[in-house]
Amino acid sequence: MTWSIIFHERNTGRIGIAVATRFFAVGARVPHIEPQKGAVCTQAMTNPLYGPRGLQLIRDGIGAADIVRLLTAPDDGREHRQLHVMGADGRFAARTGAECVPWCGHWIGDDFSVAGNMLAGLAVVGETVRVLRERADLPLPRRLIAAMHAGEAAGGDKRGKQSAALVIYGDQDYSELDLRVDDHVEPLQELDRLERVSRERWTHFRAFVPTRENPAGIFDRALIDAGIEKSLAAEK
């Protein structure tokens, strides 16, 4: 019913997930990220317990292959589910249940994983992987969205389109970007639009919010406005 990416940007430690489906509000159930440590995508006949349990295993230092085993082994519905993870060991692992609706499968690499089910065909995952590899020139949010567009162009979810999401965490306990399109005739196009809007002000404002290193952040509105204008001007 879905295909998704987990991506680890090694030089920054950022972790991102992009996902699309013909189902309502995919961003509310599929993507889960533990900042700087790992991530979980639970899909097909989604088991929402995999997310919080998986993140706890990551916090406990468990590697990817063991997380997949520990989550799926006690689950009687595991053959109807699909799961891929980045573990505390920095590796990726996945399991596609035998009863997932074809086409279904996954791809595992050093820096990312892609998994999908009820897709138009193998090319959906293949094209997603290809663009992830080829578009390293793009900033991470746009790289992930471009890869999802490539998967959609190859057929995407064979039932059609409805929702999409993009979540990126850096080195803080809150997300850098969390975009959700819950119900839309062209969810990836809408995700594209939201990402562009985020660059109008939010991505520049983000530099001033509280962090672990500076728990108060910057709250002088004049300084914030001047900083945002300077950042915007530097991009032109």
Radius of gyration: 18 Å
Oligomer: single chain
In DSSP terms (H or I, runs of 4 or more residues), the helix count works out at 7
CATH architecture of the largest domain: 4-Layer Sandwich
At the first level of CATH, the class of the largest domain is Alpha Beta
The figure for the number of domains is 2
Element-by-element helix/strand order: EEEEHHEEEEHHEEHHH
For the structure shown, list the relevant keywords:
236 residues; alpha+beta; Glutamine Phosphoribosylpyrophosphate, subunit 1, domain 1; 6-stranded antiparallel sheet; 7 helices
Structure description:
With 236 residues, this protein is of the alpha+beta class. Helix content is 33%, strand content 26%. Helix 1 (50-59) packs antiparallel against helix 2 (64-72), helix 3 packs antiparallel against helix 4 and helix 4 (140-153) packs antiparallel against helix 5 (187-198).
Layout of helices and strands:
Layout: E1 2-9, E2 14-21, E3 31-34, E4 38-44, H1 50-59, H2 64-72, E5 81-86, E6 92-96, E7 105-108, E8 112-117, H3 122-134, H4 140-153, E9 163-169, E10 175-181, H5 187-198, H6 202-205, H7 221-235
Antiparallel strand pairs: 1-2, 1-8, 2-9, 3-4, 4-5, 5-6, 7-8, 9-10
Helix pairs in contact: 1-2, 3-4, 4-5
